[in-house]
Amino acid sequence: MAKTEFSRAEPQERIPGPADDLAAEMLSERLRNGHALQQSPRRVYALLRSAIRSGELPAHSRLEEADLVGELKTSRNAVRLALRQLGADGLVERRPGVGTVVVSQIHSFPVFECVGPAIGVTGALLLIENQRIPPTPYLSSRLGGGTEPLHMSEFLVRVGGQTVGIFSRYGHQRAEALEQDRPLLSPGDLSWYRRIHGSAPGDISVVIEATTVDSRTARLLGLAEGSPLLVRETLYRDQTHAPVELHITYLDSRKASLMAVVTDGELQHDVISSSLPTPVPIAPI
């Protein structure tokens, strides 16, 4: 059974502060001016980023400020600020004589990996480290205790020729199915969990967090130190409910997202890859 864990703090009595006064002032201004325009550059940025992720704005699309102002019913300043943020993400680029162009894509990964029989995504893993490590207290507690060394392997995650993340895997046995030179994973390939263990996983726990990148990880991903990362931690238990695998995946939040599709209460395993655009190389216009 797959589940997602969320941290929840105990409710506390809240004391109004300056932020409440600012929110009240912003609401009063909107009520005075009406709601004809979408003034928030944050919301404009989110809508455009979503369109890039879904493929509505594919690579090489030109983004004209005037057109976006009309299509999004927003202000020119909101569009300009949103495009600036997309540029900082590396998703769009302003080119002389051309304008603002989509130059990169956002790659979606499943929230729950290895649930279905197929891997569900397209990508390549580049092995950068592989060793046996002692069972530290934290790892031992997550993987059922014991004193035997654990197997650790770490990979660069590459999609469409771009490095978008780092995948760290800990387990009681080797992941020989992945420990080879640049194994390419296509959506229809058998889930590597089934290749290693010969059966489907049992219980799966997933935690998703946001954090900032350290100096070593920043070098591997080509980021500035302190840049935001998505972190997905997945703990697998086998059919007897014994913990067997711990995965920690670090994704460049500018170029990657996590996605789950539920239809009629059932988690879909093959919808993510089929509903997203095929990665294409980005060439200069």
Q: Care to describe what's here?
A:
With 285 residues, the protein is α+β, with helices and mostly antiparallel strands. The protein folds into 2 domains: 33-102, Arc Repressor Mutant, subunit A (Orthogonal Bundle), CATH 1.10.10.10; 107-275, Chorismate lyase-like (Chorismate lyase), CATH 3.40.1410.10. Helices cover 26% and strands 31% of the residues. It has 8 helices and 15 strands. It has helices at residues 18-33, 41-54, 65-72, 76-88, 137-142, 192-197, 215-221, 271-275; strands at 2-4, 62-63, 92-95, 99-102, 107-110, 123-133, 150-159, 162-171, 184-185, 204-212, 228-237, 243-252, 256-259, 261-263, 266-268. The strands form 4 sheets. The chain has an 8-stranded mixed beta sheet, covered by helices on one side. A 3-stranded antiparallel beta sheet has the order 2-4-3. Strands 5-13 form a two-stranded parallel sheet. A hairpin with a 2-residue loop joins strand 14 (261-263) and strand 15 (266-268). Helix 2 (41-54) packs across helix 4 and helix 3 (65-72) packs across helix 4. It is elongated.
